[in-house]
Amino acid sequence: MISFPVYFFLIAYAFFFLIFIAFFFTNLLHLIYTGTADMTSFTVTLIILIMTVFTLYGTWYFLRGTDWKQTVVIWDSGHSSSLY
Amino acid sequence: MTIGEMIKQKPYEKIECTVRRHPITFLPYIIIFLILLAIPIGLYWLLNNSGLGSYLQNQIIFTAAVLLASIYYLSVILFFYTYFVTFYLDMWIVTNDRLLDIAQDSLFSRTVAEVDLYQIQDATSEVKGFFPSVFNYGNISLQTAGAIPKFSFKNISNPDAMRQKVLDLSSEDKKYHENQHS
Fold first, then answer.
1. Which domain does A62 fall in, by range?
2. What is the pLDDT of residue A79?
3. Which member of B59, B70, B78 has the closest CB to residue A24?
4. What is the DSSP string of B1-50?
5. Do residues A60 and B75 touch, judged by C-beta distance below 8 A?
6. What's the order of all strands across the beta sheet hosting B120-126?
7. ipTM of the complex model
8. Could B5 and A35 be called an inter-chain contact, meaning their C-beta atoms sit closer than 8 Å?
């Protein structure tokens, strides 16, 4: 039987989120170091931050009851034997 | 950091204006962004109405779907922010001494070109098309005697007034340089 726990999904998500944070700060630093940190860029950054928080809150809200220790079965030898 | 520090402003130099593309040219990105945000909602609606919604009752599939949707939304938000930064960093700076073209091609690609105002020989402005005519934006192309023979401003607001301003500043700079040489 090949299986993995559901929290593996969460690890993959965390890895993606690290990339997101890295690119977010790269964008932000571009705005700061090029002298373009003004009201417009501040407003857009704030909107982006609000949307990010809203997305993260939504993700937490929908997954708050998840049992992260349950396993996802990819392949079970019982599946093939039941065919015959 | 200020724009002056970024362009290494000289002591006698005064920034006359910073010019960006007209905000209306960013509108297609906003529309695409909104469409991309609506796609998962449309997919969810489609799943529920096609009878495949029962798959989402499975907790593992539901968890994976929510995490995938979250990754999708964060990616769309990040792409939008990156487009905005690229759009906003793409600008032209006009000082009383020179003209700088800061072309932000992508997040990690930027070209900065500059020309002395006294080297500008000719300026042409154009407003072409329906939206440019309605919102009064267009291009300016400048012929120079410098290393960069052609300099252009793309999709800027009020290009006619800007062309005139650049020509006025250029003639002032020419007078200043002529007085220095005589």
1. 2-66
2. 62
3. B78
4. --HHHHTT--TT--EEEEEEB-GGGGHHHHHHHHHHHHHHHHHHHHHHHT
5. no
6. B120-126, B137-144, B150-157
7. 0.88
8. yes
DSSP annotation of B149 reads: S
A75: in domain: no
Per CB-CB distance under 8 Å, the chain A contacts of B78 are 20, 23-24
What is the residue whose two structure tokens read 């495949």? B52
Contacts of B71 in chain A (CB under 8 A): 13, 16
* Residue A78 in domain: no
A43: in domain: yes
Stated pTM of the model: 0.87
Mean of the per-residue pLDDT values of chain A: 89
Tens-digit pLDDT profile for residues B73-128? 999 999 999 999 999 999 999 999 999 999 888 888 888 888 899 999 889 999 99
Rg of chain B over all Cα atoms, to the nearest angstrom: 24
What six digits make up the tokens of A49? 């931050």
Fold designation for B14-182: PH-domain like (2.30.29)
Number of domains observed in the structure of chain A: 1
Q: Distance (Å, rounded) from C-alpha B140 to C-alpha B154?
A: 7
CB contact under 8 A, A40 and B88: yes
**Distance of alpha carbon B49 from alpha carbon A24, whole angstroms:** 36
Chain B CB contacts of A6 below 8 Å:
60, 63
Cross-chain residue pair B74–A48, CB shorter than 8 Å:
no
B179 Cα to chain A: minimum distance (Å): 34
CA distances from B132 to B58, B63, B65, B146 (A): 52, 47, 43, 30
Does the residue A11 lie in any domain? Answer: yes
CB B1 to CB A33 under 8 A? yes
